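Lecture 7 notes: from sequence to structure.

We start with a single chain of 551 residues. Read the sequence below before looking at the structure.
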Amino acid sequence: NAEYMGKRRLKPFILSSATMFALPTLHENPEGWGPATSFVPPQFEEFPFAPFDKSDKLGKVCDFTSQGIRGKDGRFRDQTQEEEDQFRLVDNRPVQKTRFRFDRRRFQRTNERRNDGAGVWGNQRPQQQKQGGKYQKQQQQQTGRRQQGYGGGGRGYDNRPRVYREASVELKPDWAVVEEMSLSNLNKLTYDVEVKTTDIISCGSLDVYDKKYDRVTAKMEVPLVRADSVTFFNVTTSDDPVIQQLAAQDAGNVFATDSILATLMAAPRSVYSWDIVVHRVGSKLFFDKRDGSSFDYLTVNETAQEPPSNEDKESLNAPVRLSQEATFINQNFSQQVLSRSAEAKCTFDHPNPFEEAAANIASVAYKYRKFQLAEDVTVVVRCELDAVVKGKDNENTFITVKALNEYDPRLSNMDWRQKIDSQRGAVLATELKNNSCKLAKWTAEAMLAGAEQMKIGFVSRAHPRDPYNHVILGTNFYKTKDFANQINLNLSNSWGIVRALIDQCMQLPEGKYIYVKDPMKPIVRLYEVPMDAFEEAEEEESKPQPQEADS
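Now the structure, written as tokens:
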């Protein structure tokens, strides 16, 4: 090599001025790496590049592979990070297969046990064979429930018919929506301030509870007697003469009845539609029930998983018919379990404000109580008591009397006649699930009235197809505070709902409003209605009804 290099003559390389290298114009990008977005050299216009921030770590400037996806601006988006996030390690090791060995003798022994009735079911097979068709019927019912829950064998479909419920009041087009609240938000409200309670006036008289009904059982059932000649009063707030007098004396600035206030307290549990009228008069609020409404009727299985069907309204088990039946049962039961002794009757200082001449009035006492929620919020409530219980030292214990009713044990899967004596807790647990809203209302009413105990009776139809004749299967006492804890009724949340609605109405101008629970959604809406709304129903009720001539 040295000899070759020596023989070879190297020509000197001379750099001429014609071949001088000229630096191109550089366009600075102050916002990031790479060329500026405002200027791209023509020879690089079709080249893909990814913009980077100056704080990013540079891995690669351009991706010349076909893995990028062109974006809207013509650039390529890097999918490397997405692919790395989707990467999962795969185990490629061969799976060891276990060898199967057929044991002829073991197979024969298993068949022998199955033929003897022991097999998989053990000692249960002979007992099931003795039961005969009863066991097969239970298996068919369970299979039918599973198929019904999954659309007849499909996956995840429920072919149960959707329940359509009607609104409690017909909404007019001229009603303006003022506020809309969800029941879940109402359930989150709390009011931890201690509510001061004061009794203002007590009216009416109470009969003593007859303790012989504590011994009623399913085997010794007692027919329910109709109280046809007894008069019951369900007067709304504005029509109460005592409340009118207290409002004139400025005893409070919010007035309501215990049933109206209990409906608001138990609103998060409600499913059916209801409505409450609100009158804003000066600085006072009056919560009323609408004339001609079904507000005073009790619901049946409102919160059940399968509530009564409303397809056939003339059916015995239609919601409206069951509601009327439950209301009449409660009225009859509350009067039958009392002892009509004039000597033992507890009479208060003032007479019944709704007493009429020569009328057989139901045993009821009205206590007008004042609840101080704040310095500027005083609620006056008319509360009701149903009976009095005499103690050992002849002391009085005021109670409320209510009745739960059974209409068809085949639909509830809980036959009271078989369970009420031995498993009364299971019966009550089923009622807490199916009638959660109704029991919450009863408990709230008892707490507002200051009743120490609640007497709850269990009444069933004499025959499932007879809605007119009933029997008492049992009764039970419950302490009001303990029962509230048992049904998870939080008094702080109840007063929180009342306080929030009062504050909401106090900010409205004077006028007439109505709260309406949506029949299909867990929503309560507040509407502004004309002042003459619902007066047509009042005029129809005030018209004299024609009387039939005596034969």
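DSSP finds 16 helices and 19 strands in the chain. Keep this in mind for problem set 3.
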